[in-house]
Design a protein that fits this description.
Helix 10 packs parallel to helix 14 and helix 16 packs parallel to helix 23. The relative contact order is 0.11. The chain has 3 domains: 205 residues, Rossmann fold, CATH 3.40.50; 158 residues, TPP-binding domain (Rossmann fold, 3-Layer(aba) Sandwich), CATH 3.40.50; 193 residues, 3-Layer(aba) Sandwich (Rossmann fold), CATH 3.40.50. It has 24 helices and 23 strands. Helix 13 links the parallel strand 16 and strand 17. The protein has 623 residues and is α/β, with parallel strands linked by helices. A 6-stranded parallel beta sheet has the order 5-4-6-7-9-8, sandwiched between helices. It has a 6-stranded parallel beta sheet with strand order 14-13-12-15-16-17, sandwiched between helices. It holds the Pfam family TPP_enzyme_M.
Length: 623
């Protein structure tokens, strides 16, 4: 029997295949790929764009302003969809492709799926060297796209049109694997894109993908239950994996029934609401006194869906040296860290299995009430720092409180780098689950506005929070990447952006000076500029207005509160700017291990080095 085929170029076949991939969200069948962010150049405009133009009714293409930011928008979309839908980002060769490497690193560090497709040089090498080609004299197979190998979970270069038949399903499988989730990269040489090939029609049949839920080894669950039953002061550390598994409700029921307080990592924040009965605050360097106190005295820590990054563990000083860890994680690499009892499996399934294995055990009766008392003290401390004063310049904490109060229950707070992450991690009171996106796995400056655009796109369809993205960022990050304000205005996706202007890179200046170095090259006044006594002030509202946003410059907290109500009633992206204090911060009490000079002529640096040595003396030794 003769096989039925359809003759298409490789680019046409790739795009057609993308349109017939589906997934399920909340019981509804939806396209696996929500759309494409694209900037076209000579490496993808003649073939790939021709294919995308023909399917724009099924796979919409959105024009980006910067290759990095459009890939970051794809990450923001995936995060808002809790890894259940994927966006594509495509660029030309050379600098366009390399601009996406930072975004790939962001997705890789945060375990988030995005499909990156970049043009490439010619496989036949006849016109070499072509425009934007990098030549390696000892290895002609290397191109700029090899840079993605370090920051992707799946990498391929298509040198024959038949290769996509096996490669594309492997890319999707990697992106949807909860243990190996991350970005996938496909390089498309220009001459391979144009080649026609007789593809089997079966390749283009609809395919429904489901995210697997691997069950944990039964013996590992039994051992975890036995260890947990020995605990007098157990603690649950809830990470991003809880949210991506959809295990928030199961975790809350488990913790309440067993009397165990829950603290959240940066990625896990928002799995529970702020005032949930088992919630005891964010943990770690940008965490709460309540969570860190509980961590210091915990004898058994149940870490669920977290990679235990240094901001969670206080560079491994936050926990007692003799504390025992049980790590529930879909990824083996994360489950075995720091001598943990590894329980490799899906969070939702494993919580249920562990609950069953525990029988009638509950933690000592006084444990959870004490945790809630500590949390109430932390909440009161937040109130004291967030309360308005007569100071002429508001603090980050005060601005966070005003924005938090104005936010609707389903509005999503988005932040990433600088001083704001610490302030929102500590001070943002989550009103509804999964309405908090703080990208701090890679701390990528420039994520915020781009992610706001992607998040706004994700509000359509099942599984969406349904509110408006609220982006908070500093002036330094705004200057680094702001062009997706224009993207959001063009596409009609609304977000509210609050720019906190504190005169430069204030939080890194704080770290610099805390470790004994005088303020240098961070705050604008400490930079090599023409008039350090009066640095040029950027009118952020005017700048955003030039890109089509509705804008206001706010001069007080009352101004900001009024402007937020106005912004919520607008039909387009709105940018609000307010000057904030560069020196006032909500206190934190966890340690952080950073490099400090071992020798220095400065007494302040020598003192900082002694303090750093004391921190390292407290570190828990991992294997």
């Amino acid at each position: 029997m003769e096989r039925s085929t359809i003759r298409l170029t490789m680019a046409q076949a790739l795009v057609r295949w993308l349109t017939v991939q589906f997934t399920e969200i909340d019981g509804q069948r939806v396209p696996l790929f929500g759309g494409v962010f694209g900037i076209f150049g000579h490496g993808n405009v003649t073939c790939l764009s021709e294919a995308l133009e023909g399917v724009q009714d099924r796979l919409p293409t959105w024009r980006g302003q910067n290759e990095q930011s459009m890939a970051l928008a794809a990450i923001g979309f995936a995060k808002a969809k809790r890894r259940r839908q994927i966006m594509v980002a495509t660029s030309s060769i050379g600098p366009g492709a390399l601009n996406m490497v930072t975004a790939a690193g962001t997705a890789h560090a945060n375990r988030l799926p995005v499909l990156l497709i970049a043009g490439d040089t010619f496989t036949n090498r006849l016109p070499d060297p072509v425009l934007q080609q990098l030549e390696h004299f000892n290895n002609p197979t290397l191109t700029a796209n090899d840079a993605f190998k370090a920051v992707t979970r799946y990498w391929d270069r298509i040198t024959h049109p038949a290769q996509i038949i096996s490669s594309l399903p492997q890319a999707v499988s990697a992106m949807l694997d909860p243990a190996d989730c991350g970005p996938a990269f496909i390089g498309l040489p220009q001459d391979t894109q144009e080649i026609a090939f007789d593809y089997p029609v079966e390749f283009f049949e609809d395919r429904l993908w489901r995210i697997p839920r691997p069950r944990a080894d039964r013996q590992a669950v039994i051992e975890a239950a036995a260890l947990l039953r020995t605990a007098q002061k157990p603690l649950i550390v809830s990470g991003g994996g809880v949210r991506y598994s959809g295990a928030e409700d199961a975790l809350a029921r488990f913790a309440a029934a067993r009397g165990i307080p829950v603290v959240e990592t940066i990625a896990g924040k928002g799995g529970l609401t702020h005032y949930h009965p088992v919630h005891a605050g964010p943990i770690g360097i940008v965490g709460s006194t309540s969570a860190n106190s509980l961590a210091a005295e915990a004898d058994v820590i149940l870490a669920i869906g977290t990679r235990l990054q240094d901001f969670t563990t206080g560079s491994w000083t936050a926990f007692a040296r003799d504390a025992r860890f049980i790590a529930i994680n879909a990824a083996r690499h994360d489950a075995v860290k720091h001598r943990a009892l590894a329980v490799q499996g899906d969070a939702l399934e494993t919580i249920g299995d562990l609950d069953q294995a525990l029988g009638s055990w509950v933690a000592p009766a006084a444990h959870l009430p004490r945790a809630k008392a500590l949390f109430a003290e932390w909440d009161a401390l937040l109130d004291s720092h967030q309360a308005p004063t007569n100071a002429p310049i508001p603090t980050y904490a005060q601005v966070v409180q005003v924005v938090n109060a104005a936010a609707g229950e389903t509005d999503t707070l988005i932040s990433a780098a600088g001083g704001i992450p610490g302030e929102v991690a500590k001070g943002w009171r989550v009103k509804a689950p999964n309405t908090f996106d703080l990208e701090f796995g890679f701390s990528c400056m420039g994520y915020e506005i781009a992610a706001g655009w992607g998040c706004a796109m994700a509000q359509d369809g099942p599984g969406a929070a349904g509110g408006t993205p609220i982006v908070m960022l500093g002036d330094g990050t705004y200057m680094m990447m702001n062009s997706d304000i224009y993207s959001a205005v063009l596409s009609g996706h609304k977000m509210i952006v609050i720019v906190c202007d504190n005169g430069g890179y204030a939080v890194i200046s704080r770290l610099q000076q805390f470790k004994g170095v005088p303020g240098f090259n961070n705050l604008l006044k400490d930079c090599r500029i023409q008039t350090p006594e009066n640095p040029l002030h950027v009118d952020f509202a005017a700048h955003a207005a030039a890109m089509g946003a509705a804008t206001r410059q706010c001069h007080s907290l009352a101004d900001l509160a009024a402007a937020l109500q106005w912004a919520k009633g607008n039909d387009r992206t709105t940018v609000l700017s307010i000057v904030t204090d560069a020196y006032a911060w909500v206190p934190g009490d966890a340690d952080w291990d950073v490099g400090v000079p071992e020798v220095s002529e400065r007494d302040s640096v020598r003192q900082a080095r002694a303090q750093q040595d004391a921190i390292r003396a407290k570190q828990r030794i991992g294997i």
